[in-house]
Amino acid sequence: MRLITHLRHVDLAVPDYDKQRDFYAGVWGLTEVANDSGISFLAAAGSPEQYVVRLRKAAEKRLDLVSFGAASPADVDALAGRLRAAGAGLISEPGTMDTPGGGYGFRFFDLDGRTIEVSADVAVRAHRKLEAKESVPVRLSHVVLNAPDIDATRAWYETHLGFALSDTLAHPHMGQVMHFMRCNPQHHSLAIARGPHASLHHISFELRGLDEYMYGTGRLLRAGVRMIWGPGRHLAGDNTFSYFLDPHGNTVEYTTELEELDEDAWHPHVHDFSQPEVTDQWGTANPMNELIAKESFNDVDRGVFVAPPV
């Protein structure tokens, strides 16, 4: 039984906090909704989530945590019980949370040592429908994580958190390199990418539509933000993509029109990403190569099996 409903937020620790905060609350188009001595909470205009990114000032860059939603406190308790019985490392027991919007949740380590949070009953934030030409993120779309053994990590998320496989990317010489995982009808809220170490691959933000996605891409280019790949349209998920680097070298994506699946009828595909139309149906993006791939390996994550202090 699937107990997780959706992706809530991704939390980053950053040495150059002011520069990161200026980037996300500035040209990237999020809104700072709370700030507490070296911690910034940033919301997306069209999202009911209290925040979609949290930045924390720290000596070392790391992924602090990935947060998912559940439908009820009972589901949170059931998930905690399931993980406890399986011997997974619980960081905290389910209880009241003191982050913006409150709620009831707990934290635990996944197979690769990332901190994952699951919560329910978080207050809904006042949000709105974006207007035409508003090129700021509507919501958080998905997060992609690097793992040395993507099959083991995929199996862990399927077994313990109820994620389902949507599609896989493979290469004739490299084998399978990415699993797209879903927790609702959206093609993926999570993907597991093959990398040399556990780290953040990228965070993706949904824009209102194609025009807004292109306006946003153009705004970032004009601002001198480095685009590493795009603009284009993937085959798996059928979504558009423009990948940029934030000031600390984390890859962040603007996307739109991510595919919604009929889960009862869907069967996972294995796509050969050595075929150009698999990585980019439009043919407008710079070709995928090893240098682009390495950008998203990111640095070795210093937060593996170390819970964030807040």
TrEMBL record:
GO terms for molecular function: metal ion binding; methylmalonyl-CoA epimerase activity. GO terms for biological process: L-methylmalonyl-CoA metabolic process. Coiled coil: none annotated. The keyword Transport does not apply. CDD domains: BphC5-RrK37_N_like. The keyword Manganese does not apply. It holds the Pfam family Glyoxalase. Keywords: Metal-binding. Residues 6-121, 139-257 form the VOC domain. SUPFAM superfamilies: Glyoxalase/Bleomycin resistance protein/Dihydroxybiphenyl dioxygenase (SSF54593). This is Oxidoreductase.
